[in-house]
Amino acid sequence: MSILSTQQILDAGLGDWRKLAQALHARFLTRDFTTGLALVSAIGELAEDANHHPDISLTYPHVDVKLLSHDASGVTQRDVDLARRISNLAAERGITSDPAAPAVVELALDTADVAGIGPFWAALLTGDASAVDGDDVADPTGRVPLLWFQHTDAHETPRQRFHLDVWLPHDAADARIAAAVAAGGTVVDDAEAPSFTVLADAEGNRACVCTILER
């Protein structure tokens, strides 16, 4: 099954769901644990019926759901179909969503030597020095954020080597950027917005607010 484009995902009209770095994400406001547990159980039945299984996180006030076709390494039509079924299920139970809530944080590290430092970071973060896939260190159990290596020329001049990528819903990013600026930050570079906008704190430490648009 082929990976859907950003426009195809947007055209699907999934009001509860937002595509972030790799997957579809939704937060359902169950407001109590019992309601959340019942929703998780019902989603599990849908997943078994579809033979397609989301990642689900249950907390007291909400249920977070993530959909990704791992065999295709992206969002496919079966993710969209299951997302729509999950939304209908939640609506039938009177459970609303918060489409602005989902967020994914990734770590980015500038390096001219992925092969030299990749195994170290893989071992440190996952316990497995071989857990390097191309430019990524990914923990299959989801304990730590994905770390990706940003290629750069070798250099000796001190500079920031790490930065955070904060993936947000495309229709929530501007408000988050404004909040960060109001809290003392600055916009360093918005030439690639809305794909990503580079922000800095008062000491110059940088982070990128990322969306799926124009990628």
Return the domain count: 2
Strand content: 25-35%
H/E topology pattern: HEEHEEHEEHEEEEHEEE
Q: Which outline best applies? A: globular
Largest sheet, spatial ordering of strands: 7-8-9-6-10-13-12-11
**CATH homologous superfamily classification of the largest domain:** 2,3-Dihydroxybiphenyl 1,2-Dioxygenase, domain 1
Give the helix proportion (percent range). 25-40%
* CATH fold-level topology of the largest domain: 2,3-Dihydroxybiphenyl 1,2-Dioxygenase, domain 1
Mean pLDDT: 95
**CATH C-level name of the largest domain:** Alpha Beta
Query: Uncertain runs with pLDDT below 50, 5 residues or more?
Result: none
- Give the beta-strand count: 13
Pfam families: Glyoxalase_6, Pterin_4a
Family: Belongs to the pterin-4-alpha-carbinolamine dehydratase family.
Enzyme class: lyase
EC number: 4.2.1.96
Question: Nutshell version of this structure?
Answer:
The chain has five helices and 13 strands. An eight-stranded mixed sheet has the order 7-8-9-6-10-13-12-11, covered by helices on one side. Strands 1, 2, 3, 4 and 5 form a five-stranded antiparallel sheet that branches. Helix 2 runs antiparallel to helix 3.
